[in-house]
Amino acid sequence: MNTFVRILSYILLIVTTIIFVLKVKIVIPVSYKQLIIVFAVGVISLLWATLREDKSNNRK
């Protein structure tokens, strides 16, 4: 599960970064507020997966 969340968060972060860059040159019908929210969800999920993995390694 942690691996799935980590991969999903990397995909969210990469896609939102690409859309941020493309939005400068091309008109994309997505607001900056929506992009920031999706980017924040990616960061939070990546932190969650990382912290959860660290806790499970400490228990062993």
The topology string of helices and strands comes to HH
Q: How would you classify the helix and strand content by structural class?
A: mainly alpha
Average the pLDDT over all residues and give the rounded result. Answer: 88
Number of strands: 0
Cα distance, first to last residue? 18 Å
Determine Rg (CA atoms, Å). Answer: 14 Å
Roughly what fraction of the amino acids lie in strands?
Answer: under 5%
Biggest sheet: strands, sense, closure?
none
C-alpha geometry: elongated
Work out the helix count: 2
Helix content: over 70%
Q: Which residues form runs of ≥5 with pLDDT under 50?
A: none
Would you kindly provide a written description of the structure presented here, covering whatever features stand out?
This protein has 60 residues and is mainly alpha-helical. The two termini are 18 Å apart. It has helices at residues 2-25, 32-59. The protein is elongated, with a radius of gyration of 14 Å.
Identify the notable features of this structure and list them briefly.
mainly alpha, 60 residues, 87% helix, 2 helices
Write a compact overview of the structure shown.
By secondary structure, this protein is mostly helical. 87% of the residues lie in helices and 0% in strands. The protein contains two helices and no strands.
